[in-house]
Amino acid sequence: MQTAFGRRTTGGEIARNPAAGSSTGPGYRPLTQVALLPLRPDGRIALIRRPDGPHRGRPDLVGGRPEPAEWLAAAARREAHEALGVQVAERDVEFSGLLHYRGEHGAGRLCVVFTTQHWSGSPDNAVPGRRDEVVWADPGGPPSDALPLARAVLDQYVTGTLHGTLTLSPADPGNGP
Predict the structure, then answer these.
(1) In the chain, N or C terminus with fewer CB closer than 10 Å?
(2) Listing from the earlier edge strand, what are the strands of the sheet with 163-167?
(3) The whole model's pTM is what?
(4) What kind and span of H or E run contains 165?
């Protein structure tokens, strides 16, 4: 059987079709981001303000893109360490939802959301220069200047509907990586 991506061989594997272009990595890596919602006992969730670029000063989710071949929960834990300087144990990360959304240029993206209520270390701005500050936000009333994806994730987290498809305004430069 021939497809744009390759042909199925007798062993069940897919043979790459050179006409389909080259691959930059496995799966959805370029289109996927992870977010970790660190949740304090008072119900507030950590967001990060960015110091520069198109998202300057705007609160954003703790998260980013997975590294090649990195498990999604491991990427969320790594991002928490890089952004907040905390260690999150594997057992303390819980899958919370999956959003499919359109980024600022209309490209389809996936945001895999995890939560944690336990970590070691004190959440702080672990990367001065890349982040301005940690903001502990009420998920039911995030800062009005929070990036659209952050507001949408928190809204859906609060309502228990953190799944499905979401379309963000392409006019806002804060709609994804």
Answers:
(1) N
(2) 62-64, 32-38, 108-116, 94-102, 163-167
(3) 0.75
(4) strand 163-167
